[in-house]
Amino acid sequence: MPVPTAILALVATFDLPLDELRRYKPDRTEPADFDDFWAATLTESRGLAAPPRFEPYRSSLRTLDVFDVTFSGFGGQPIKGWLLAPAGATDPLPTVVEYIGYGGGRQFPYGWLTWATAGYAHLVMDTRGQGSEWSPGDTPDIETTPATGQHPGFFTRGIDGRDTYYYRRLMTDAVLAVDAAVANPIVDANRVVVAGNSQGGGLALAVAGLSPIPKAAAIDVPAMCHWRRAVEITDTTPYHEVTRYLATRRDKVETTFATLAYFDGMNFAPRASAPALFSVGLMDDICVPSSVFAAFNHYGGPADIRVYPFNGHDAGHLHHVAEKFAFLEGLGLAP
């Protein structure tokens, strides 16, 4: 059934006009100890890390080799993943480390064919505790410190403080996934790319700001950017989790956003230097355009953005895959 024009117009114009989005650069709110917090977090987890394991996985993919990956993430906890590469490849390859969107897990290797088919090595990181919405996962979320109540989901898990917050664990996993990738001899440590969509895009942005290893970042409709504006202007999953949480914890508003400031893509962005390609859908009512542009306009390295005026959270979809291939080819990062 066609969407009525009046409804489409409402969806299309709920955020700022494009000319204002291109100039939208709100003040950042990172805490004074932002860098120290992340340096200490990563140092502690790296100190507990075991060597990653890459175990051959028997599949029916005749043109690709597949490895079942286990590496150490936050607190030394085991995190699963897949590594795919062209069959029989021995020389170090440009490698894409990819993070998964909200609610998804690593599923089966058959769902991750694009990059390896194009000649890249491709490490897909499983998402701790997730994998129950649209694809299964295999990694539990092990909480090492107690936390109080949360709204169902992950955006408010442990949100009482920066040390207990779920995304401290997940973002640490994401950084250490890059460390694990470069430990494999098939991976060219000088040609590593981080990539992801939505939650995965937010993780790719965080890693670009926290790790010196990535040489490029493909950041599609990133979540966890400009938290306060996103929470205030959209009520879709998963930002509505924060809205619902604060609706019953009226005295927790400022402490909640103080926690989220440690995990805001707008604060990771200026710390990144690798060339980046962003994408945004102007009808996106999940990762709203102003939150994406807030991160993009603060990005510290060379960056470009593909704008899809008539798309929502799907943004450029398969059309944008071609844009990412061209972006990496232009950087000399193609196989």
SSE blueprint:
Blueprint lengths: L4 H8 L5 H4 L12 H14 L5 E4 L7 E9 L5 E9 L6 E7 L14 H4 L3 E5 L40 H17 L4 E11 L1 H12 L5 E5 L6 H7 L5 H10 L4 H8 L4 H4 L7 E6 L7 H10 L4 E6 L8 H14 L5
Parallel strand pairs: 4-5, 4-6, 6-7, 7-8, 8-9
Antiparallel strand pairs: 1-2, 2-3, 3-5
Helix pairs in contact: 3-5, 5-6
Largest sheet: 9 strands, mixed
CATH architecture: 3-Layer(aba) Sandwich
Number of strands: 9
How confident overall, as mean pLDDT?
Answer: 94
Biggest sheet strand line-up: 1-2-3-5-4-6-7-8-9
Instruction: Output the helix-strand order.
Output: HHHEEEEHEHEHEHHHHEHEH
Strand content: 15-25%
* Low-pLDDT stretches: 1-11
What is the top-level CATH class? Answer: Alpha Beta
Specify the structural class: alpha/beta
Q: Describe the global form.
A: globular
Specify the CATH homologous superfamily: Alpha/Beta hydrolase fold, catalytic domain
Classify the fold: give the CATH topology.
Rossmann fold
Distance between the termini: 43 Å
Can you count the helices? 12
Please give the radius of gyration in angstroms: 19 Å
Return the domain count: 1
Helix proportion of residues, in percent?
Answer: 25-40%
